[in-house]
Amino acid sequence: MADPFHQRLHHIAASGLVGGLSSETAQTSGMRRLEAISGRSVGAEHLWMGQTHVPAATSSGDHHHGESETAIYVVSGHPVFVFLDTDAEPPVERRIETSPGDYVFVPPYVPHREENPDPSEEAVVVIARTTQEAIVVNLDSLG
């Protein structure tokens, strides 16, 4: 193995050509995840990064990302992130409405879903996680 100062950089092209984004990653209904940076794609040890696309007028299935912390950057559209606020009595669904340029943080194991209420525009976000593979646990509900 080369010393840490002499490893190569990896370029992952957005075009989907060889070496580009891959849909060969964990998926949830109602959305499409594309993997860019991972243990499989570039040998990452502590990071997963990619994109999520939610079509117009669509909601994803409820899910969580296990031990991963997840950071989300909204590229386009106005996705809504929904989670169950268990501090409320009784527990209630909370909605975070976003716009391009916004960031959202999802703590480990927190069930949530993405919704795209726009009738015509796809929502696209960039995701970074603190594990080298995409952990996705699909759920029947937020509760």
Describe this protein with a few key phrases:
143 residues; 11 strands; five-stranded antiparallel sheet; mainly beta; globular
Question: How is this structure best described in words?
Answer:
With 143 residues, the protein is mainly beta. 3% of the residues lie in helices and 38% in strands. The chain has one helix and eleven strands. The strands form three sheets. The protein has a five-stranded antiparallel beta sheet. The protein has a four-stranded antiparallel beta sheet with strand order 3-9-6-7, with no helix packed on it. A hairpin with a 6-residue loop joins strand 6 (80-85) and strand 7 (92-97). It is globular, with a radius of gyration of 16 Å. The mean pLDDT is 92.
Chart the SSEs and their pairings.
Elements: E1 32-37, H1 39-42, E2 48-54, E3 58-59, E4 63-64, E5 70-76, E6 80-85, E7 92-97, E8 103-106, E9 112-116, E10 123-129, E11 137-138
Antiparallel strand pairs: 1-2, 2-10, 3-9, 4-11, 5-8, 5-10, 6-7, 6-9
Terminal-residue CA separation: 46 Å
| Average of the residue pLDDT scores | 92
Written as H for each helix and E for each strand, in order along the chain, the element string is EHEEEEEEEEEE
The overall strand count is 11
Q: What percent of the residues sit in helical stretches (DSSP H or I)?
A: under 10%
Count of individual helical segments:
1
List unreliable stretches of 5+ residues: none
Radius of gyration: 16 Å
